[in-house]
């Protein structure tokens, strides 16, 4: 009797304190930019992926620690040679349109992405030889060669499974009509304004707690913060550091600060003088006080980078980086034949990354101290990317976050010489030893792969194709009425398992 009374009292207390899960309600998320394309195989932006991760499931999924856990696949085996992955699927699941989820649906999705020229084809086509439905709930991936990052690629947003019926019905327009197996169904998309989702009552993990989610486009950060404070929104994304102290003082708001995988860097054109001299590139690194950037410009919401990989990225190795040492920078410049420094242009976006333009101005002042006279050139984002494709850059500020959470998706696109074109290797860096390490790393597994990546990072940092600046933290905030907000360090915020109370 006493035990029963204790249980009842505990449940009542939980309800009073907002701990107990409750069904119902609409959550409004105020974010800065709209989705672009709600087709997982054909999208490259975080807003699109965030929406899709509420609508669709993959075979495997990341948790908040970036572990790879079973999702639509309940288990899998990997052949001894690392080239065959056999997935055993959950049974009895249907897509939102009633289409059965089975091995044929999985094979259809992946055969589409590897045979068509979609924006995420490069994540799978180079590695997958075939995808075969062995029976209704068993699907086999045969790889062209061992690929140690394959499960990470399957946890990527591009590997979310959508209804084959929807793909066949809508064709090139399927990105406006997403249909998955996930906890929420797509309702409507008013471009530039909002996207609405509603609960899937037949979700295989159980009905979600929320009735609806509305992703509301609010470009101005101050307006997003106001809507959160006023109760018009439950979540506000990309909070400026200057707003954090006030929000933290608000008893009704929770500020969520999390490490990300995004490294911000200044690339240098390794093929154009004076940056074709490694001593000049090293001098630039020594001349920049990265700790000061993190504390003064980013308000403490970044950490100095000592590798092209962020610490949460699989394969990261702490190289030690470049300490702030302007005297060594001057000596290297003199040794390279620039005792009086030189002039250069530093291109930067404004507003693409947190405090990007402000960082460029701070770097300009630091480089001036060692004689490097930099002109900061701001460009609109689309024009900026076009400029990089034309290879006109001398110095340029960019960021990179591997959405697979694996070091391969940093080292290979950004540092392998084969990737001068397309644009990812914007520094036009080339080192045959690094190329070989990256290629070996693709085929290796476990500790052997880590050692290859470790060596590659050591060489890349020594060669200094970039000035390695900092690893960003992501700042979001939400109402304390909303519980179980989740954050993936690939810069994805999730409320699919949340409830209001």
Précis, in short:
The chain has helices at 2-16, 46-55, 103-115, 150-155, 164-170, 221-230, 244-248, 278-287, 290-297, 326-335, 356-368, 381-389, 408-415, 432-443, 446-463, and strands spanning 26-31, 60-62, 68-70, 73-78, 84-89, 128-135, 138-143, 184-190, 194-199, 212-217, 235-236, 253-268, 302-304, 342-348, 372-378, 395-400, 466-479, 482-483, 486-488, 492-494, 499-500.
Structure, described:
By secondary structure, the chain is of the alpha+beta class. Helix content is 31%, strand content 24%. The chain has two domains: 205 residues, Periplasmic binding protein-like II (D-Maltodextrin-Binding Protein, domain 2), CATH 3.40.190; 212 residues, Roll (Dipeptide-binding Protein, domain 3). Helix 13 runs antiparallel to helix 14 and helix 14 runs antiparallel to helix 15. The longest helix has 18 residues. The protein starts with a helix and ends with a strand.
Mind sketching the topology for me?
Blueprint: H1 2-16, E1 26-31, H2 46-55, E2 60-62, E3 68-70, E4 73-78, E5 84-89, H3 103-115, E6 128-135, E7 138-143, H4 150-155, H5 164-170, E8 184-190, E9 194-199, E10 212-217, H6 221-230, E11 235-236, H7 244-248, E12 253-268, H8 278-287, H9 290-297, E13 302-304, H10 326-335, E14 342-348, H11 356-368, E15 372-378, H12 381-389, E16 395-400, H13 408-415, H14 432-443, H15 446-463, E17 466-479, E18 482-483, E19 486-488, E20 492-494, E21 499-500
Parallel strand pairs: 1-10, 1-11, 14-15, 14-16
Antiparallel strand pairs: 2-3, 4-5, 5-7, 6-7, 8-9, 9-10, 11-17, 12-16, 12-17, 13-17, 18-21, 19-20
Helix pairs in contact: 8-10, 13-14, 14-15
